[in-house]
Amino acid sequence: MTRYLIIGNSSGGIGAAEAIREIDRRGPLTIVSEEPYPAYSRPLIARYLAGETSVERMAYRRPEFYRQNDIDLVLGQRLVRLDLASRHAELDDGRLLPYDQLLLAVGGTPIVPPIEGLREHEFFTFATLDDARRLAARVHSGQRAIVVGGGLVGLSVTEALVRLGVHVTIVELAPQILGRALDTAAASLVLRAVEEGGVRVLTGRTVARVLGSAPTAGVVSRVELDDGSTLPCDLLIIAIGVRPRTEVVDGTGIAVQRGIIVDRHMATSCREVYACGDVAEAYDFIAGGNRLTPIWPNAYLGGRIAGRNMAGVDTVYSGGTAMNSLHAFGLSIMSAGIVDPPPGEPAYEVLLRDERARGTYRKITLLGGRVVGMIFAGEVDRAGIVFGLMRNGTPVHAFADRLLADDLGLLSLPAEVWQQMMRV
Ligand SMILES: Cc1cc2nc3c(=O)[nH]c(=O)nc-3n(C[C@H](O)[C@H](O)[C@H](O)COP(=O)(O)OP(=O)(O)OC[C@H]3O[C@@H](n4cnc5c(N)ncnc54)[C@H](O)[C@@H]3O)c2cc1C
């Protein structure tokens, strides 16, 4: 019997466990997680902070999931060492877990920049349910918060704080917010919505120093920006991105670049060891090579592919790509692939419908007659169809003029195209 071990009990780990159990009901299956909770939906922690959902409602699977699937769930324990030769994983309580097939679905860890005074004061990151709980315990209406980082996580935590009556300033180093997810025009639409929501946004700036009030050690009172100005601050949240937790393979010889490199079967450079999700550098069907694509659906799908291969069914990962969707401050956005093609590069064709004055913006980027990037802001109902075309690599030149139409529907596409999309 094959012994399966999965480190990480989130999107990737659950995807793998489900795929394994669809094939092999008998092989012992253990999931280890450093977090003390059954799997929960990480994207919902902002709603939890805002008091709009409960831990129970964030559960990613029913409580009986582990029992029904004969999964031995080890919570609150961390993998500290891997011995590939003897195929053992050592946990921080000293336990040695043997395996035949191992999956590393350990995600990422928030990046904490080397800001002067930061480590001497209280600050928050925002990546786990415990992070949200810690912040929830300290927040109250009327406080002033500084959120460092204007990406998706920064905006999510900002919106939750605003709902709790906190005055938020976002400090973003790049010239625009959502720099990785949107082009300048679409970002300006989001900026307007965020500012109308009462948030102050400072771009091209960073926090240079964290200052406290002398009588209460460790409590932040102000931050100093890189232009020398200071802002009052009761809560400091760092949301500048995550770093793959590749340290789990330190010293093993498993190949790593920015993440753990996996092949199209989600296998690492060591047979019997797989990786998926935020920690893995996996195939990106737009880049045509390996990249980090740290989003929930890619982790789940990559986990499923890993699980199938671990259980002996040869399965190839069709790939993921960068995709972002957000509903914040009353504005919905969805973007994927190449959102801002390199300027002056004639190979790209851009279809644009810029109606920012009425709150919408749509942009589709084509390369060789196929969709390679998209931004839909304000009006996202049709975005799924365009994403489907991008995912399938469908040649669209014959009907490209229809892709930005308000009434774009599957039936506006040629019959063979929508029939193919219905089959996928
Ligand atoms: C606030 C927030 C909002 C987000 N919103 C979205 C969204 O709207 N849409 C979207 O697609 N994506 C979103 N994401 C990203 C998404 O949550 C991640 O891509 C996804 O969770 C990755 O899943 P994963 O299984 O790779 O790893 P993770 O979800 O990061 O889980 C990894 C688990 O492994 C555990 N672990 C790590 N190291 C060890 C170890 N050594 N031993 C034991 N356990 C370990 C960790 O504690 C963690 O529980 C959001 C993320 C955050 C933080």
- The percentage helix is 10-25%
- Total of helices: 9
Radius of gyration: 23 Å
Q: N- to C-terminal separation?
A: 34 Å
* Computed structural class: alpha/beta
Average pLDDT over all residues: 95
Please tell me what the overall shape is.
Answer: globular
What is the H level of CATH, i.e. the homologous superfamily of the largest domain? FAD/NAD(P)-binding domain
Low-confidence stretches: none
Strand content: 25-35%
CATH topology call of the largest domain = FAD/NAD(P)-binding domain
Bound molecules: flavin-adenine dinucleotide
Name a few traits of the molecule.
424 residues, 5-stranded parallel beta sheet, Enolase-like, domain 1, 29% strand, FAD/NAD(P)-binding domain, 21% helix, 9 helices, 3 domains, alpha/beta, binds flavin-adenine dinucleotide, globular
Could you please describe the fold and organization of this structure?
With about 425 residues, the chain is of the alpha/beta class. It is about 20% helix and about 30% strand. The strands form seven sheets. Strands 3-2-1-7-19 form a five-stranded parallel beta sheet. It starts with a strand and ends with a helix. The relative contact order is 0.13. The mean pLDDT is about 95. Bound molecules: flavin-adenine dinucleotide. Flavin-adenine dinucleotide binds next to helix 1, strand 2, helix 2, helix 5 and helix 7.
